[in-house]
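Teaching note: in complex prediction, the entire set of molecules is handled at once rather than each chain in isolation. The prompt given to students was simply: 'Predict the structure of this complex.' The entities are:
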Amino acid sequence: MAVTELDAGPSFLDRLSRPKPLIVLAVLMWIPLTVYVMFGDRLDGYADTVLLPAIPATLVLYILGVRAFRESWVAVLGLSLVFFWLLMAVTAPYLPLMDPNKPIAPFTTPFSEKRDVFFWLGTDFKGRDMLSRVIWGCQRVIVWGVSATMVAYVVGALFGLVSGYLSGWWDEIISFFANVLLSFPVMVLFIVILNYLGPSGFNIVVAVTFASAPAIMRIVRGLALDIKTRDYVFAAQTRGEHPLYIMIVELLPNVRGPIIVDACLRLGYTTVAITTLTFLGLGLQPPDPDWGLMIRESAKTAMLWKFSYMLLVPALAVSSLILGFNLMADGLREMSLRD
Amino acid sequence: MSDQIPVLECRNLSISYYTRAGEIPAVVDFNLKLMPGEAHGIVGESGCGKSTVALAIMQYMGTNGAIVDGEILFEGRDMRTMSAEELRHIRGSKIAMVYQEPMASLNPSMLIGEQLAEVPVYHEGISQDAAMARAAETLAKVRLPDPRRILKSYPHQISGGQQQRVVIAMALLSNPRLLLLDEPTTALDVTVEAGIVELINEISEEFGTSMIYISHNLGLILETCDRLTVMYSGEAVEVGDIRDVFDEMRHPYTRGLFGSIPLPGADKNAQPLVAIPGQLPLPHERPQGCNFGPRCSFFRGGTCDVGKLKMHAVPGDDGHKVRCERFQAIDWERDLPKGEAKEPVPAGDIVLSVEEMTKHYVIDDGGMAFLSGPPRTVKANEKLTFTAREAETVAIVGESGCGKSTFAKVLMGLEDATAGKVMLGNVELGDLPVDKRDRETVSRLQMVFQNPFDTLNPSHTIGSQIGRVIRKFGVAKDDDEVEEIVYRLLDTVKLPRDFAKRKPRQLSGGQKQRVGIARAFAGNPKVVIADEPVSALDVSVQAAVTELLMDIQRENRTTMLFISHDLSVVRYLADRIVVMYLGQIMEQGTTDEIFAPPYHPYTEALLAAVPIADTRIEKRSIVLKGEIPSPANPPKGCPFSTRCAYMMSGVCDTQAPPLRTFQSGHQILCHLEPAELEAMEPVIKPKAAEAAE
Amino acid sequence: MLKLILRRLAQMVLIMAVSSLLLFAIFDTPEFKKRLAVQELGGFAVSALTEDSYQSWLAKRGLDVPFHERYVNWVGNILTGDFGFSFEKNRPVGPLLADRLVNTGILAFFVFALMIPLSLVLGVLAGMKEGSVQDRTISFVSVFTTSIPEIASAILLTVIFALGLGWLPVKSAMIGGFSFRELVLPVLTLVIYDFGYVARMTRASMAEVMTSQYIRTAILKGIPYRRVVMKHALRNALIAPFTLIVLQLNWLLSGVVVVEVFFEYDGFGKLLLEAALFPDVEVVQACTLVAVAVAVVSQIISDIGYTFLNPRIRFA
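The expected output is the structure of the full assembly:
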């Protein structure tokens, strides 16, 4: 009997892989991290305890992710890269790292000791520990990047559904403004918006929304146009359902699949945008560590072979995160084609 | 005959596909011998492996398919041993193929001339000019008008029927020894199909080409082939001469197939169809022994479910073989499956009445009207007038562009009628969009859809989708009560109750259609519109779903509007028939009236076009010329005048035809005098020779 | 066909009108003007700006005229070729922008000259045999390179070829006149990031065509495989990449900003960023307007090209 009981029913991990537990885990991981990065300075002494629940949640999500992607090594590699940085982001306060903003010994090259301290990745021109800065630096990129992408998705999907489903004048107007925004080269749009609003994390969210939402809207609109010709939508219309009900219950769940791949790619684009904008001086501001900022601050002083590590470390870090997002998108696409 | 070399011979052919789930056998132990000039039909349902056989003969299996056993001999040589270059020389010149979807089979960005000319250029090395001349000649042979113009056209510029003639011309260019036809008419309208079938028959007579004709339609096979292989789940189950297989079938599956298609004489009350129980097994879930075992009424444990079954020759009939262990134990004369006769249901009062309903669309050019002239009007429905009574089945029959789906949209309140009235009881629906209708009116009118893959939302469970209808129409509010009704509905459509928790992708096509029916009947409707509810299903599943739909209708005394293009199904289940062509009703009357003279010329052609899988039936041959005109640009006068055999120029092509009324409401819209109409010969009649025997 | 072009042109004019209005309006809000005034009058805080000095600054800059008059005036000037005056560079914007656009044009020319053949050839090779080793290799390489943002590849290339090997100059300011050597790193940076994207799209298009039924028809017609690929597949498979490549012009105007700033190449992107940080409003407006114009025109070219290449639409 005992054996059959073990065999029967889905395993613990299977049960965790259902939508509701997944959402709970994602919230457990995400909310503390966001609160920590966006409002950490107002939490006083509690700041460090906030992140504690996020650590197990991140680990469990990673295990579930690997299980779900196990058939595609590409996707597992991508997932691992992304979760490596996520884990760094949530554990940064608890790791035995030096203060990322404290000048210790300027221009120390990697793997060398200075003033009785061993520096794995060396120090920058101000003498701040590179290892500590690169780990702390991922927090802001991840939090602002993901937040901006999420906001852009909510806005884009909303307009896309309305435009695709209701058609007519709604579509004409929404599509026209999307076309206007899409006519601005992305970086030009960023520069104009951030020049007007001023550089800050929240303004990056606004700028990314303006830049990405039109493209998302177009994708969702296209999907909605396709799905609304299906008979089940026809059935809902003929039983007198409200357009809002049809958009949310009949359409939205069916556009979810195709846009997940796009969302992964777009997370990559947003990460590029944030790093680049910060490098250009229009994004996140000093002194807190950030990859774009590390490049910006060292760009003038590190132009020597000996000091190139100051640029290489953040450049490789940001590339690895984006590679993670892109590989995940690739793996997801491959898996969706198989089924 | 016997000392001739067969054009093609398949010996013990087995083909597998390799997927992530492992090796999936698509075809097992397939044998076929095709003599010169012979036409061999392969018939079977989806997934039975019939198209795989055709592609294997072409040695085109994709990257994941392979011949795992047996051999394919073309004119005595094993094709598996041929080099790629040898194969290339055979393909397109000695063996040619015609495909199911002509539009997809032609290169969209190359002129038809280029696509045709390259065949002789590469196979015979003749010059481009000579090849073009040959192409023009061949186009004329497949009776395409104006070959010169077609050579200089792109595929999308000609109609579907013409595209298929181009594909056939392409296949004939090098005078092949063997022609493979893979469902060549499935994507076409019936009257266009009739033209293609006639052409195929002429080709085999004129050129003596051997043919393999693949189809799911037994009637088409009867019209085109000499011999026949019936396939089921990857195996040939019965092989023989057409007449032997049709008249003295010796495999339970073949007989089940004939029992589940509506042949003339079948009747929903007196002689209902007999469905084959169960459904097709998936390739990796095939049973031990006989694949048909679990669905077979003659199944005997220990005989039918052990080992690999072999083909057995039917004694006294050379060349007739079956894959059945018990075919000699079955009394084929006595054990005829019979449906249970039912009492006819008397029709009640008029429920739905349509009076001169007209729907026009105006094509809008997006505010650039000054560039395109005055806006064009599409006359989707023109003055439709008919009624439907309680518990009655009214069939609306027509081909593409006849306006049947527009009519459904107006009825359901998604479009407003341009003029005229649609009365449901005493509610006027014509200009009452669905959001202005009260809940009761909406719930009284429901629909069953055609495409099983589209009818259910893939994101929600079956239970929640049926439950939504129950709540929406106020049948029940309480959760437990709704669940109870959902269960009851699932019982009604003969699905297990635990399907309520499943998502649509876990269901087969037939099961999805059953859920669609349950959903339509959840709000206790008075009128159900069934839009080709079984045409996308496999033949053996069709009958079960049709019978189910009619049982529920009978029980609830529901009025059913059955939209279809298939006259044989309609003949079987309809009480009255409305025949539509380009937005107008050409003829309406009771089923008997429609199937007997007087006919409307269009109805006459339609009846002649439908292939019938019955050797005892004789049909007059009427092949319409041309194609169905676009509803955006209909002919002047009578819409059928461009294709009608009785066309009187100066009358039919200028004036709208008058409505002729015969006894008991049989109406025909035609310029011909009633006497001329009544003088028409019946299209379908029992064969004289055999009737005398 | 003509109808479509006219319709597109009308749309383009409308888009230009709306974006110029937006562009003019956001740099015309009181807060922004006050920030400008503070900057130009000397470094005190916005709160310390007196109403009088603000008003006199507005009058001096001609900003006291009603909004619509100034907008009409501005558009009129631009249409006659007068793009305003750069306070930072102390030059009329028109010639300044023209110089920089020529420089960016040179950069773009080499980027496209390298990127188009590279991405098309790789994409076609990968898509021809879906799932083969060459496909997997090319696909992985292209994911890899598109994952390195311009800023990172600029750093990697500089560190390897300029700082490490010393083959190429670190900066591309072209102080000693035009030099090909200085152009190599900016061009490579842009090509590395972009070719993967176009190659992947080409691959997808080619793979789709190769599995289509008309390719099966062509193969089963018995014509040589070479001809199947060259004549039947390519013609259809390259329609989508063509429009995509034209649209990359829009993308390039984004990419050049970071590359030009990093390599100190005097082009359009560097001009825009410097103007934005200064802020030199008329330069920002002029640059943005030109960028939008380029984007809109490339969109139209790609639309018309698509129609022209696709007989299904051309002869609809």
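Point out the following to students. The first strand of chain C starts at residue 85 and ends at 86. Chain C touches chain A through 51 residues (CB under 8 Å).
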